[in-house]
Structure of Metalloregulator ArsR/SmtB family transcription factor:
Amino acid sequence: MLTIAPEIEVLARFGRALADPIRCRLLLALREAPAHPSDLADQLGISRTRLSNHLACLRDCGLVVAVPVGRRTRYELADPRLGHALDDLRTAVVAVDADRTCPDAQEKGCC
């Protein structure tokens, strides 16, 4: 049986988190500043239920953490280096070819 190195597992987990546009927008919003779910839902223009599902995914992936603040919960990136990684990925992709799009994975079997 083939074993996957921990580094590859972590990169794959990060890639799965980035595979959804809402999660990408959420990570980029949290890159700017920690925020409460209600504020994030308003900022992203999505329902709180939908946001909650995406936050749970990002928490399970270890990319964001929930911080209790009184009776509310604030979310932030689990590590400040994730913000730098997001910036590096964005600039690298734009530098390579900003006009390219990834075809639908189901149609083309890509991504």
About this structure: The two ends are 25 Å apart (CA to CA). Residues 80-97 form the longest helix (18 residues). The longest strand covers residues 64-69. The helical segments are 6-18, 21-32, 37-44, 48-60, 80-97, 105-108.
